[in-house]
Amino acid sequence: PQLILRSDYKPFPWLLPDVSLDFKLSLEKTRVSSRLEVQRNPNAVPSPVLELNGDGITPLEVLIDGEVVNSWVLEDDKLLISLSGEAHAVEVVTEINPSTNSQLMGLYASNGMLCTQCEAEGFRRITFFPDRPDVLSTYSVRMSGDSVQFPVLLANGNCVASGRHQDGTHWAEWHDPWPKPSYLFALVAGDLVARKDQFTTMSGKNVELAIWVREGDLERTEHAMESLKRAMKWDEEAFGREYDLDLFNVVAVSDFNMGAMENKGLNIFNTKYVLAEPDTATDGDYDAIEGVIGHEYFHNWSGNRITCRDWFQLSLKEGFTVLRDQLFSQDMGSAPVKRIEDVRVLRSIQFPEDSGPLAHPIRPDSFREISNFYTSTIYNKGAEVIRMMRTMAGEERFRKGTDLYFDRHDGEAATCEDFVQSIEDGAGLDLTQFRLWYSQAGTPKVTVRQEQDGTTTRLHLTQSVPPTPGQMDKKPMPIPLALALFDRQTEEHRGEELIVLNEAEQSFEFSDYDAAPIISLNRGFSSPISIERNVPREDLVFLAARDDDPFARYEAMQDLVVSHLVSALRGVLSDADRADGQEAILKAFSAILEDSALDDLMRGELLILPSPAYLSEQLETSNPQAIHEERERLKAWLGTQCAGQFEALHQRASGGAYSRDAAARGLRKLKAQALIYLAAGCPEKAAKMAAAQYHSADNMTDRQSALIALAGLDVPEREEVLDAFYKRYQGDALAIDKWFSIQAQSLHPKAIEHVKALAKHPDFTLKNPNRVRSLYMAFAANPHAFHAADGEGYRMIADCILALDPINPQTAARFVPPLGRWRRIEPGRAALMRAELERIADAKQLSRDTFEQVSRSLG
Ligand code: B3K
Ligand code: ZN
């Protein structure tokens, strides 16, 4: 497959101001007739040929200005039509089979309904079109189909007409007044019911809201609807953005490759991010729904009104929209906890991506398959980069920048550069050097040395950006660091400051400190970097107990644990050191357990140990099972030492009535943490507590945390509760997904055998992405099972990729990165991982998606 370069961008030679589509819908055979009004693009190099993308379709008929013509050729899936004049009407008829579309791109069938997914390049599987984001058109859509099978017919924009035919079919016409690229096209036809509501915008316009689901699911849509209304209000207040159609539809489908899709006026969602009630959804699920509903809604401005010029600019809409959804969730709940959660995701997913063979800048320079670039780097690092601009500008000036961006580029297909320029002009920042964050991959490493000279404190900082594929030499980037200096006497600091490290080496001076202060650095995670710094243990214990920045407090706790575990893993920990390290962690732990000023959500957060993925980032190469064992050993020790406290905590947290308020959620989080530590330290006691918690639970959060603890233990309660869960939720796909993933991710020594057996379970299928992920993604994230020394785990993931690739390449390719980590793993396992990648590479007829990921991983 061809490598596509950012530098090759050229505007499309034709403009397509208006597009009409007509769909004769049926599950097996849908006929699509398109009519494209084309005119020469005055801002492009002229071409005598209109080049339309297609993928797996053939034209049944081509008409120019109403006449059937033969002046076209089909070349490598592209339809090339010769055009002589300045403007023409081009019509093309195609036929597609939604029921065999297992890739879930284009128009496909899911549970008897028809729906679309077009981003990034799915529209070309429906009809021939310049399927690129810089071709903007207004769409008129007419569809007709069986009125029993498809009583509901939806598309983008507003429904302008509908009616019935004599033969039992019906039809509807939709018109979207806002010009959009083809990837935002959507159509849904099915037997659906809606929760309806309304929203009045800031200028007083009324918007009809509807969330469409299958009949039995209606009750589970309340939270999504409330989240949607909150998101609409928030975007008006926080960014001045008002909704721009009379209608906003959301549809939930159970077969979906990703989380959700922001199609104009017709968002399509994975059921996982819509449906929730206390019995089936955890607190985490509720949060995720709010976040994703917000995210897709916010795309209406950051993505739809202003879209991307080309797919290399993907982070323009995704990074910015992730930042917007993060800020929204911060405002709706606990801001510090949300920030910690976001950093945890960044460090356990994006950091490993940035240090591996798939590392790429947030604005990549090349790709073969764009689906492979919907990555944590584009999304999460993209958000962090914009967050740094916000930190440097301050909230108010940043808002001036985003206002200018929305103003300047409304209705356009823009670039990342357009965004940076708008922030620069609107916020009054100089971002010349900062632009490097868009072009350089890799997580910068900052080293810190603190020096005390009389009453002057000096911080000597160095930065380096590690080499990544295709980028051996990097330049220093601006790194904004929020910091506070704690006076050792008063245990207070004199206020937070922001310093910006611009150079490879730079020193900063602070005066009037009698003794070396304790430094709280990168507060709020102001920069997405890793820091190397020798901080005395007592200082970390102090910060973990006392820092007034909640993130910094969490960070101190993480540092304390990371430095201990990393020394243990490097084999440089004497027995005495180990004892000292454990005592220091215990001291910090106890302070957190006892601190009455802490809310329980935050307390629960502070008790979470650094993830195995983050720990392995700290080592050049690692043995994942050794990491797992050291981490478990510490957990068991803490579980034993604090057994009494954890039991008391669990007791205190049990028994209250279910509520979704922060206090009740905090208690559920504490119960989960208590069980995790007790399961490691006192398994028998934990098993009894977990079983009791499971049976008395009145919500999914408590059931799930009990099940997670039990799934890892070799106790009689394990089978009993797993069976009870299965029976209770049989037929409820989202709950059964949890049942699969809890077992696949369990700490049980036989997890690998469990996964093998689950793959043969009648409820398992490779056709449903949620189900595949619930078994195999969970398994690939299970350090002790996936990294079994004999390579069995690697083999299973490779087998999954090979079996899934012909069915759903986009999802198959997402299983490659865990194997691609081989260079950072000890040599024995690395060889086994590599061998599996080579086995995949040798397979005949690999998809472009999987081919690209495997070849980059072998690199
Ligand atoms: N924009 C979609 C991504 C769909 C990608 C499909 N390959 C979801 C989102 O980020 O909102
Ligand atoms: Zn998005």
Topology (elements, then pairings):
Blueprint lengths: L3 E2 L8 E11 L5 E11 L8 E5 L7 E4 L2 E2 L3 E4 L2 E5 L4 E10 L9 E5 L2 E5 L19 E10 L5 E4 L2 E7 L4 E12 L6 E4 L2 E8 L5 E8 L8 H18 L7 E7 L6 E2 L4 E5 L12 H16 L8 E2 L5 H19 L2 H20 L11 E2 L8 H18 L1 H15 L3 E2 L1 H12 L8 H4 L5 E9 L2 E9 L14 E8 L10 E5 L3 E6 L7 E4 L8 E4 L3 H10 L3 H21 L4 H20 L5 H7 L5 H6 L6 H18 L1 H11 L8 H20 L1 H14 L3 H12 L4 H14 L3 H12 L6 H9 L9 H12 L2 H4 L5 H13 L4 H5 L2 H5 L6 H16 L5 H11 L1
Parallel strand pairs: 2-12, 18-19, 19-21, 22-24, 25-31
Antiparallel strand pairs: 1-23, 2-3, 3-9, 4-8, 5-6, 5-9, 7-8, 10-11, 11-16, 12-15, 13-16, 14-15, 17-18, 20-21, 25-26, 26-29, 27-28, 27-30
Helix pairs in contact: 1-2, 2-3, 3-4, 3-5, 4-5, 5-6, 6-7, 9-10, 9-11, 10-11, 12-16, 14-16, 15-16, 16-17, 16-18, 17-18, 18-19, 19-20, 20-22, 24-27, 27-28
3D structure, described in words:
With 859 residues, the chain is of the alpha+beta class. The protein is built from 28 helices and 31 strands. It is globular, with a radius of gyration of 28 Å. The relative contact order is 0.06. It binds (3S)-3,7-diaminoheptanoic acid (B3K) and zinc ion. Residues 75-184 form the Aminopeptidase N-like N-terminal domain. Belongs to the peptidase M1 family.
Structural class: alpha+beta
Strand order of the largest sheet: 6-5-9-3-2-12-15-14
Binned strand content: 15-25%
- From the coordinates shown, what is the CATH architecture of the domain at 1-190? Sandwich
Shape: globular
- Which bin fits the share of residues in helices? 40-55%
Summarize the biggest pleated sheet.
Answer: 8 strands, mixed
Radius of gyration (Å): 28 Å
Mean pLDDT: 98
In CATH's first tier, which class of the domain at 1-190 applies? Mainly Beta
Domain Peptidase M1 alanyl aminopeptidase Ig-like fold: 442-533
Protein name: Aminopeptidase N
Keywords: Aminopeptidase, Hydrolase, Metal-binding, Metalloprotease, Protease, Zinc
Cofactor: Zn(2+)
